[in-house]
Amino acid sequence: MRLVWFTSAGPARGWQHPDSAAHDRRSLDSWAETVGLLERRGALDALVLADIPALPSAHGGTHAPYVRAGVGGIWNDPLPLLAGLAARTSRIGLVATVSTTLTRPESLARQFATLDTLSAGRSGWNVVTSYGAGPAANHGLEVLPPSTDRYDLADEYLAGVQRSWDRDALPQGRPVIVQAGASPRGRRFAAEHAEVIVIHRDSPSGMREFRDDLRVRARAAGRDPDSLSILFTATLCLAPTRAEAVRRRQDEHRAALDSPVGIALHSHRLGRDLSGLALDEPIPAHVLAGLERRSSRISSSGPDGPTLRELGAAELTGGTFDLVGTPQDVAAQMAETMAEVGGDGFAILEPVLPSLVLPFVDGVVPALRQRGLVTDGYPAATFRQNLLARQLEVLA
Amino acid sequence: MNPSLWWAVDACDPVDQLQAAAFVEHLSRTGVDALLLDDTTPDGVSGRPDPVLLASWLLPDIPELLLVVTLRVSDAAPYAAARRIIALDQLAQGRIAVLLRPGTATAEVTAEYAHVLRGLWTGWDLDALIQDRDAGVFADPDKVRPLHHHGPHFRVAGPLNTPPSAQGAPPLISPDTAGWSELSLVDPRIRVIGHGWRRPAPGTTARERLLRRR
C-alpha cells in the first residue's frame, strides 16, 4: 500500500487546531519537524502540496468570508517550501502542484529540475490545468480555455518539459508525474502520462470502478498498469475509542453546517453563489443547473431540489473516504478497502500538524505494518524507485 | 535595506550542493551582509538552479545572512512571481530582497511589473493575520484588498491568496538606476566584495578583506 500526505503550504490549512499556534507553518523549522515524523516514523511515500493561484470569491462575489475563516484556498506556492524541505529530509517524495495553463514551460522545467537536483531524486509534479475565474483574472485572462483544450495543451507541454529534463540528466531522470483529474479527458491524460493518480471516491465500489477504468486505459496506451499508483483521498478522525471518534466527527459536521463559512465553502466548491439562501428551503434549480454530474445529491433530488442543509450534509460526508475510529479500526478499514478495490493506497487529506500526524504514524502505520501492508523504512533512494519497489512487494 | 557588504554568485554556475552549503555557512561567519543569487543565463535555459528554490534550500545554513534572489520579468506572470517570493520570504522570516532583471522584457514592462509586485505585496496589511482560534477569525478581511490593476502590459485582479511575510513587501533592486527600484546594484553604498562559489580564504573575514583593499 502506498501512502502520501496531501495538503497545502502556508499557515492557513488547519489553523484552527490548538497545536497550530506552536507550529506556525510560515516557519521552515516547523514544517521540517512534522514532515520528519511522516518520513522517519511513517515512511510515507510523499508529501503532496496542492495549489491554486487565487483567493475564492464565489460566495457573494467577495473574498471576505474565506479570508476571515482562513479556508477555501489561502495557500502558499509549494515550491519554495519543498526546496527548503529537500535540505531537511532525505527519503520522502516532494510533490508540487503547478499549472500548465499559467506557467511558462521553460520556467517549470527549470524549477522541477532544481527540485530534483536539490532533493537528490525525490521530486514530483502534480500536473493541473487550472480552472475558474479567479486564476484567470490574476493572470490577465478573461476566461481560461475549455478543459479539453487545456489538456491538449498539457500533452504537448509535458512532452516539451520532459525533453528538457532528458537533456539535463537529473538524479531521477524525470520528476514523477502526478495527476488528479476525474473528467474523461483528465482520465485519458492520467492513463497516458501519470505515475501517481490522486482521486476522490467515497465508496470502495466507486474506487474499484475508477481504478479498473484507469488500468484499462493505461494498458490501451501501451503502459504497464502496475506501474501506476492510484491513491484515494481520505480524511481522518482518530481517537482512543471508536465511540469518541464517531462523536467527534458528528460534532464537527454539525458545527460546519451551522457556520456561515460552511455555506461559503460550498459556494466555492460548487462554483455557485449560495449566499442569501435559506438553510431549509429548496435551492432554486437555476442556481445548481449543470452540476448534476458533480453531486449525486443534486441529481437525485426531486423537482424542488435539495435544501442547503441537505446539500451541505451530503457534501460533508461525500466525495472523500472518511476514516473514523481507533488506529486499529482505521487500519482494518484501509486493509479491507484495498482488498476490495485491488490497490494502490491512500492520500491522507489533513494538515501537517503533530496532533494529526502523530496518531497516524504511531498508531495507524504500525497496525498496517503488522498486517504486512506497508514496509518499515524506504526500500530505495528516489521517489520513483520507492513507488515501484513497493509495488513489487505487493505483487510478490 | 542597506547592506553594504555583498557576495555575489551566479546561481547558474555549476556547483556541488554540499560545496554550496559549506560555502554559505562559511560566508555567514565572515561579516558579509548579503548574498546575491544572480541569474545571468539567457531565457529558456533549464538544468541550472532556479535562484528562488536554491535560496530556500540554503536557508537552514544561513540564519543571519540577507538573501537577494533574481527574478526575470520574462520568466513568470507577476502574480505567480509575487506568490513565490512571499512564500520564500515567510520561510526566511523577512530576509529576502529581489533583484529584478528584465530578461527579454523592455524597461517599460519591467517598471509595470515592479509596480504590480509591490501592489500585490501591500494588498495584505502586515497586521491582517489575526489567528484568533476562539473567535474563529484567521485574518481581517478589511485588511486584504484586491489590486484591480489594468495596465498596458498586465491585468491582475489580486489579492494574493498568500498571507504576508514578516516584512510585507521585500525590497526591489534594479541592475541599474531604474525609477521603480528602492536600491540598485550600482549604488555606491553596496560593495560587492566577492564573486562565485569560491570559499573566502580561511581566517579572512570580509571586513578584513575590504580594509586590506583600501
Compile the SSE list and pairings.
The complex is a heterodimer of chains A (396) and B (214).
Chain A: E1 2-8, H1 28-40, E2 46-50, H2 64-69, H3 78-88, E3 93-99, H4 105-118, E4 123-128, H5 133-138, H6 147-168, E5 176-179, H7 184-193, E6 196-199, H8 204-220, E7 229-238, H9 242-258, H10 260-270, H11 285-288, H12 296-299, H13 308-317, E8 321-325, H14 327-341, E9 345-348, H15 354-370, H16 383-395
Parallel strand pairs in A: 1-2, 1-9, 2-3, 3-4, 4-5, 5-6, 6-7, 7-8, 7-9
Chain B: E1 5-10, H1 17-27, E2 34-38, H2 51-58, E3 66-72, H3 78-91, E4 96-101, H4 107-121, E5 129-132, E6 137-139, E7 149-150, E8 155-156, E9 172-174, E10 183-184, E11 191-195, H5 206-213
Helix pairs in contact in B: 2-3, 3-4
Task: Tell me about this structure.
By secondary structure, chain A is α/β, with parallel strands linked by helices. Chain A has 16 helices and 9 strands. Chain A has an 8-stranded parallel β-barrel, surrounded by 8 helices. The longest helix of chain A is centred in the middle third of the chain and has 22 residues, at 147-168. Chain A starts with a strand and ends with a helix. The model of chain A has no long low-confidence stretch (mean pLDDT 91). Chain B is an alpha/beta fold. In chain B, the strands form 3 sheets. A 7-stranded parallel sheet of chain B has the order 10-9-4-3-2-1-11, covered by helices on one side. Chain B has a two-stranded antiparallel ribbon with strand order 5-6. In chain B, β2, α2 and β3 (66-72) form a beta-alpha-beta unit. In chain B, α2 (51-58) runs parallel beside α3 and α3 (78-91) crosses α4 (107-121). Chain B is globular. The chains are: A alpha/beta (396), B alpha/beta (214). The interface between A and B is large, with 64 and 55 residues.
Strand content of chain A: 5-15%
Q: What radius of gyration of chain A results from the CA coordinates?
A: 21 Å
**Model regions low in confidence, pLDDT < 50 over at least 5 residues of chain A:** none
Distance between the termini of chain A: 13 Å
The total beta strand count of chain B reads 11
User: Could you report the average pLDDT of chain A, rounded to the nearest whole number?
Assistant: 91
